[in-house]
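Please go through this chain and its backbone structure tokens and walk me through the local backbone shapes. Keep your notes short.
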Amino acid sequence: MQVYRPWLKRPVDVCLSLMVLIAAGPLLLITWLLVRFRLGSPAFFRQARPGLDGRPFELLKFRTMTDARDAEGQLLPDAERLTPFGQALRATSLDELPELINVLRGEMSLVGPRPLLTDYLPLYSDHHARRHEVRPGITGWAQVNGRNAVPWNERLDMDVWYVENVSLTLDLRIMFLTAATLVTRRGISADNHATMPRFTGSENCDE
């Protein structure tokens, strides 16, 4: 870890991301066209997320939801705006492909804790806040051990475990398991939620 994490992890990220972007170029273009046609413009979803040391960056993903609103002009709940097409993008993780750009920019890693909402930053315990000691990842230890179906306390504990045990062997294992998870489509969402219930704080995450 002492060699890989500070010196090798970033070069590995850049090399592998470039390879995937080149190989998946046609798929990216087709997905972009489908999102524009099925969900409208813009095709990309952009949102501030906390990165390394909690510093914010702009996350890039393909849109999976409509902009449907209620009579007062407020966005409808996520579950009501998530279309079957959007569900298919999430199930296959095609919506995550633009995050390879975040990796090349140095804002993310291929493997690491998933970047969550900036609103959650003051809600973490000191222990769970350690998830920001590494760059957030496109996939991670929690994603191959239940994905969004795992309760918050377990998910955040797994993020911290990854921070404490990061290595090349572990990253390669997570990438391999990620491919298997995509095939089985396990843990795409928590019960009765489009993805995960909102995080309300480390002291409440057993609820």
Q: What stands out?
A: Strands lie at 44-50, 56-62, 109-111, 137-139. The chain has one domain: 4-196. Helices lie at 4-23, 25-39, 78-81, 84-92, 99-105, 152-165, 168-184.
